[in-house]
TrEMBL record:
<feature type="transmembrane region" description="Helical">
    <location>
        <begin position="140"/>
        <end position="161"/>
    </location>
</feature>
<dbReference type="InterPro" id="IPR017938">
    <property type="entry name" value="Riboflavin_synthase-like_b-brl"/>
</dbReference>
<keyword id="KW-0813">Transport</keyword>
<feature type="transmembrane region" description="Helical">
    <location>
        <begin position="182"/>
        <end position="200"/>
    </location>
</feature>
<feature type="transmembrane region" description="Helical">
    <location>
        <begin position="103"/>
        <end position="128"/>
    </location>
</feature>
<keyword id="KW-1133">Transmembrane helix</keyword>
<dbReference type="InterPro" id="IPR013121">
    <property type="entry name" value="Fe_red_NAD-bd_6"/>
</dbReference>
<dbReference type="InterPro" id="IPR051410">
    <property type="entry name" value="Ferric/Cupric_Reductase"/>
</dbReference>
<feature type="transmembrane region" description="Helical">
    <location>
        <begin position="220"/>
        <end position="239"/>
    </location>
</feature>
<dbReference type="InterPro" id="IPR017927">
    <property type="entry name" value="FAD-bd_FR_type"/>
</dbReference>
<protein>
    <recommendedName>
        <fullName>ferric-chelate reductase (NADPH)</fullName>
        <ecNumber>1.16.1.9</ecNumber>
    </recommendedName>
</protein>
<keyword id="KW-0406">Ion transport</keyword>
<dbReference type="InterPro" id="IPR013130">
    <property type="entry name" value="Fe3_Rdtase_TM_dom"/>
</dbReference>
<dbReference type="Pfam" id="PF01794">
    <property type="entry name" value="Ferric_reduct"/>
</dbReference>
<dbReference type="Pfam" id="PF08030">
    <property type="entry name" value="NAD_binding_6"/>
</dbReference>
<comment type="similarity">
    <text>Belongs to the ferric reductase (FRE) family.</text>
</comment>
<dbReference type="GO" id="GO:0006826">
    <property type="term" value="P:iron ion transport"/>
</dbReference>
Length: 671
């Protein structure tokens, strides 16, 4: 190969100069960050606007406005209309049915954000170039390399538990984690373009193997690509869920290896893009370590014994759930936040995020943990040994480490009406939020500078919906439900115009149906069935007796061994008197609705009609309402879609007078 050909194929640290009229490489990096900054500025402005809206509503409530959550000025009305349009587009997700499986595509909001990001990558990579022109392939290779490395700080900023993006936008790290993963995938896409143009050019002259054998820059570049590909592949939800503890450790090690490979691959002027994300990552780790040490070292906290400040007791609640309790924790938190919990004596080198199911006023930090595998399974196994019977005996607990609290949520007391929807342990998120709001009603000056007319909140009406498989799950929060009911009744008797409706939907419980069927077959229509639900009291076994109203059915199953799953959607307001859910010979429910009215809540056999719940709450709202949902992905996305449908049907903020519907969604799984 002659000297000219050798020079053309040299992959040097210093890029070739761009042609006339083509922007420089550093200029395009700066342009990329200008657009990223603009996007972050827009998100920050939205966060500021939300805070202004909150204080405006609180001020209106303090002046005895009958509808403080309704926008009145032109500015707030315009904001409400724009917010509604963005929500209707951003919340929606197309459902897919594959056989018996129901899947949802990602919501349109994240999809549109990633489309815009990919457009930015493509434009900044190819602007002023002609991709089919062989003479420009090296220039495109250099440009895409510069654009690729400029993305690394953005990825690291999105990953930090305590980061600047979350601070300015008002979003917790868990709500940025999806963007962190997708920007990493966009980085892999950019590197594929970068590598593809170099490889294609070298391939025309059979020069690829020569570069791999003789060029150090090419080898470390391939190493960086391989590590990044592994980082992306191992971060896919099904893979990282196989062994989350292993995933976290290898993810950090792989990330550091990736930065080392990139550092030796790029020219000196680009090595700053390696130091910047490394500094961000180190800052996050140092701050987290500081909080971790302060929160857990007993020397910083009075009345602590031993080295660690926190000890936890583990109690089995049923066949798959554990209650973990830390008395007098050394940290405070807000409803809706979560902590990372580690008990290395039971699950070494394991730390998982769990939603805090209690309030600081309770004097204890509680978690309701579903036993799956790994650390959560070890917690449950230990709890069964520590509490072999339903006695009142207690163990001394295990030393634990806590990190946090994390997560942010818009103050819910600014909404006129609230609808909480939880699936199973999702109630650990919604229950504290509801209880906190009721306490705001009860004690208006606790966290406020204002003397609010509505008892410390704009909110007038709360609807709480909890979907569980078995009625025994009620023991998790039965005391809290009774307490909420008593507090609200006290407020109403004092003249406050507030209301809380609580409904528990049971989808799989043949103890209810078998009892109902045996009585109904004998006593005819309008029979009343008494059902006892165990409470969460550790000292005594209280019983909550509720009256269940039903009709007879000719298809009752007498086989108590058949698992009964009530899959029919039930409208509790229409099906107040209806047959219970009973199973046929094949295990399928023959009838799927059963309602009981209790003093504190309604117990219903079946699944809720989410769209109907949202619609009824929206019809009651005098101002903007909020839907807070936590549970499996299907429940969460189904709720988003239902909110979009109701908003569109009612023409929210489009001249009809219908008020906005805000959705805050939490899903199960690791962040």
């Amino acid at each position: 190969m002659d000297f000219a050909m050798e020079k053309r194929h040299t992959h040097t640290m210093e890029p070739m100069s761009m042609g006339a009229g083509v922007p420089g490489l550093v200029y395009m990096q700066n342009l990329f960050w200008i657009f990223i900054g603009a996007g972050l500025a827009f998100a920050t402005a939205a966060n500021v606007m939300n805070k202004i809206l909150y204080y405006q509503r609180m001020a209106a409530a303090s002046k005895r406005s009958p509808d403080p959550a309704r926008p009145k000025s032109l500015i707030f009305q315009t904001h409400a209309t724009l917010a509604t349009i963005i929500r209707e587009v951003g919340y929606y997700s197309s459902p897919l049915k594959l056989g018996k499986m129901h899947l949802y595509l990602p919501p349109m909001g994240p999809v549109l954000i990633m489309i815009a990001y990919m457009v930015l990558i493509v434009v900044t990579s190819f602007y002023a170039f002609h991709p089919k022109n062989f003479l420009e392939w090296e220039d495109i290779g250099y440009r895409t390399g510069f654009i690729a490395i400029a993305q690394i700080p953005f990825i690291v900023l999105l990953a930090g538990k305590r980061n600047l993006i979350g601070f300015f936008t008002g979003l917790g790290y868990e709500r940025l984690s999806w963007l962190h993963r997708w920007v990493a995938r966009a980085l892999l896409f950019t590197i594929l373009i970068h590598m593809g143009y170099w490889m294609t050019e070298w391939g025309k002259y059979n020069y690829i193997m020569v570069k791999l054998k003789t060029d150090f820059l090419t080898r470390v570049g391939m190493a960086a690509f391989a590590i990044l590909a592994w980082l992306v592949l191992s971060s896919v939800a099904p893979v990282r869920g196989l062994a989350y503890e292993v995933f976290v450790v290898q993810h950090i090690i792989s990330y550091l290896g990736f930065l080392v490979a990139v550092y030796f691959h790029v020219p000196a002027e680009n090595q700053k893009w390696v130091w910047i994300p490394l500094a961000f990552w180190a800052f996050d780790r140092v701050v987290r370590a500081g909080y971790l040490f302060y929160n857990n070292a007993s020397i910083f906290h009075k009345n602590s014994t031993g080295v660690l400040a926190c000890r936890a007791t583990f109690q089995p609640l049923d066949e798959a759930h554990t209650r973990v309790t830390i008395l007098n924790p050394p940290v405070t938190w807000q409803a809706g936040q979560h902590m990372f919990l580690a008990c290395h004596s039971l699950a070494p080198l394991s730390s998982h995020p769990f939603t805090i199911a209690s309030l600081p006023q309770d004097g204890k930090m509680e978690f309701i943990i579903c036993a799956k595998k790994g650390g959560t399974k070890r917690f449950f196994n230990y709890a069964q040994k520590a509490f072999p019977t339903q006695s009142s005996s207690r163990n001394e607990g295990k030393p634990v480490l806590i990190e946090g609290p994390y997560a942010r949520i818009r103050p819910l007391r600014q909404f006129d009406t609230l609808l909480f929807i939880a699936g199973s342990t999702g109630a650990t998120f919604t229950m504290p939020l509801m209880r906190d709001l009721v306490q705001q009603w009860h004690n208006p000056k606790r966290n406020s500078k204002f003397d609010f007319a509505a008892g410390g909140a704009v909110t007038r009406h709360i609807r709480f919906v909890w979907v569980v498989k078995r009625s025994s799950s009620l023991r998790w929060f039965s005391n809290q439900l009774d307490r909420v009911h008593a507090e609200v009744e006290g407020l109403r008797s004092d003249g406050y115009d507030v209301a809380v409706e609580i409904s528990v939907y049971v989808t799989c419980d043949n103890t209810i149906t078998s009892a109902a069927s045996s009585i109904n077959d004998r006593k005819g229509p309008q029979a009343r069935v008494l059902s006892s639900i165990p409470t969460d009291s550790d000292d005594e076994k209280n019983e909550i007796t509720t009256k269940m109203v039903s009709r007879t059915s000719s298809n009752f199953s007498q086989d108590n061994s058949v698992a009964c799953c009530c899959t029919k959607v039930v409208d509790e307001d229409v099906d107040v008197i209806s047959p219970p859910c009973c199973c046929g010979e094949n295990g399928a429910p023959s009838i799927s609705s059963y309602t009981t009215k209790g003093p504190a809540y309604n117990l219903i056999s079946g699944r809720p009609d989410i769209a109907n719940l949202i619609r009824k709450s929206a019809e009651l709202a005098l101002g903007e309402m909020a839907v807070v949902v936590c549970g499996p992905p299907g429940l969460v996305q189904g709720t988003r879609n239902a909110a979009v449908m109701v908003s569109d049907d009612r023409a929210v903020h489009k001249g009809t007078g219908a008020q906005g519907i805000y959705v805050h969604a939490e899903t199960f799984g690791y962040a």
